Amino acid sequence: MTFDVAAVRASYPALDDGTAYLDGAAGTQVPTTVIDAITAAYRSGIGNVGGSFAASRRAGEIVSDCRRAVADLVGGVPEGIVLGPNTTSLIYRFSQALGSTWRRGDEIVVSRLDHDANIRPWLQAAARAGVVVRWAEVDPATGELPVEQYDTLLGDRTRLVAVTAASNILGTRPDVAAITAKAHAVGALTYVDGVHATPHGPVDVTALGADFYATSAYKWSGPHIGAVAADPRLLESLSPDKLVCSPVAVPSRFETGTAPFADLAGVTAAVDHLAALAGPGSGDRRERLLRSMSAVESSERELFAVMRRGLAELPGVTLYGEPAHRTATAYFRVAGRTPREVSERLAARGVNVWDGHCYAWELAGALGLRDTGGAVRAGLVHYNDRSDVYRLLAAVAELACTKERQ
What we know:
single chain; Aspartate Aminotransferase, domain 2; 2 domains; four-stranded antiparallel β-sheet; PyrdxlP-dep_Trfase_major; Aminotrans_V_dom; Cysteine desulfurase; PyrdxlP-dep_Trfase_small
């Protein structure tokens, strides 16, 4: 496998501005091929689906192509790919559909490692249905989500286990396959938030044991589109609220309103872009994706080791979380500086990072950081290089050393 980061970076027009984009955990930049695909869809003429004319047929083909592309990315099937404006909206959609099947006294399990989008919709659905909520806790020292606790959390009334495939602030990759196996053993369904995990390595929803797997294209160089992968037979068993005249078939019955067809064309282009990151190769798109995303994972791991070691060596810098398996995401504080002050000072030096709880509301609380501004998050994606990391380290060192001298 090869990974030429210089060639990858050359395909992203936004990177020409000289900024170190270390904010990818909140959304990535897009390559020229994605921009071109969206533009081409509009230039060709598109109409709503279901019509008898060419522009309508083009829209239908765009939707079908997008479902196939996302299925290839995550190891699902096109007939089980539900598309939507973002994953938060889709999780609310599924929480309502699943929640309508729960009965008072049923139970669900959520984790404090998760982004709030994979917690709050389930809590709200549970409250409406009179369902008991059980919490999987995080080890605040390591950032790990111990699997063993699920043995006491699960029971014959458990209906759903919601868990993330990777923490969006600590990067923790819990043992999702082990957790879902325990859930399935008691007859529960599993909803896996793969938004932060998908950009950082190969994904196989079957191996993960995910009954539902959520991902966001804008986290892997696509437009702002969310998707959920599921077994079509499972989707057939659910009855979401819908207009009487809207499609009955799955996966369309879960999709409300008219789709942003040009953006869906951009999603397909983004998947094709990911499939080519390791250079030209043989095999179908799924095979090329597995090869490319393995190369991405290896490249990010090597670069992150430089970034994390550099941050750890700086005076006054505190890093949070030491998980054994993680994405290339660092969450840290600089002594004597608020997280917002750090992010503002870095922005002034052309380094983009995030600060705050980053919607990891429960996790930031478990770490004792939520009420004091959270921390600073810097994350790597496939287009980051050593120059980005060195600029981050130099800027943080300047802040840390300046405060130390005061």
